[in-house]
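Hey, weird one. I pasted the Putative heat shock protein HspR sequence into the form twice and got a warning about non-standard characters only the second time. First submission, copied straight from the form history:
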Amino acid sequence: MSADTPIFAIAVAAELAGMHPQTLRQYDRIGLVVPGRTRGGSRRYSQRDIAQLREVAQLSSEGMSLPAIAKLLDLEDEVRTLRRRVVELEHDLREERASRPGVRVFAAGATGSIMAVPSGRRIRRSTEIVLWRPWLNRPEASDDELADDPDDSER
């Protein structure tokens, strides 16, 4: 069961959060903490909802306004979503790198197309420009390679 599974009725959620059920109804009406609903329309709170209710109570007791708390909760949700997306993208990147073990250089062709260039292949500088060459896990470049590399001054 995940922290987002709506399982607690309003009376149980209010008790767990240390609030009156009417406060939970008000927070639902203004969109501060919106629980799931059953088919019959009853509110069902998740563990994450309970944690948010406790956070709202803490912030409110410290003098923060309800609109400010709502904005803070929205930002926390956005951060959580973005972190999940970063994890997904990192996973996709690892899979892509694993599927192309020899690709280490990317270049732009004469037509502007981006292409991956396998390690060890010489790039004709008259028609292609090297855009990116990762230096992580790369054996030290020879002096000849560095002398041929116009981007050497940037390193």
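That's the output from the first submission. The warning seems to come from a hidden character in my clipboard, not from the data itself. The helical segments are 10-17, 21-29, 47-61, 66-99, 143-148.
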